[in-house]
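Treating backbone geometry as a discrete language has practical consequences that deserve illustration. The amino acid sequence and the backbone structure tokens for this protein are reproduced below.
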Amino acid sequence: MNQEEARREIAEHMERHVRYSAEVAAALDKIIVTLSGGALVLSMTFADRLASARLWLPVLFLSWLVFAVSIVSVALSYRALQKQLRERAYQLNQVAKDFEKHLAEGKVASIIIDIARHGKVGFWNNVAIWSFVSAIILLGVFVGRNLLALQC
């Protein structure tokens, strides 16, 4: 394998890795939004059946708020990703122009670009995941407390 084939193979591997990572992230975001929205709607619809004793209602309301934070965090994550992709497209356009310039001058140039982490996207994804987990715990505490009250 020569140097050009090795570079091409590395670039293809990086591209596959980025695509797979994006697919996994999109699937996780879809799961979080679907489950958060479903839990929010179901708990709102059946709140009177889940908690006829109406104990600890602030915990229920807090769980609703945290489910909403989870959904909004996914949206903010997509917005941050959109902004980063636009910036990256501009950078890649500059790299292409520089490459063409160096090629015309007879200089050897490399267009291998590193894979960067998305700081804001990762932050909002973490907020979404932890908000979802927290909301599930809060909802469980609320329902559990009210079910215990019914048994006494």
Observations:
- The chain has a mean pLDDT of 84.
- Residues 3-80+114-151 form one domain.
- The CA atoms of residues 5 and 72 lie 44 Å apart.
- The helical segments are 3-45, 47-50, 57-104, 119-151.
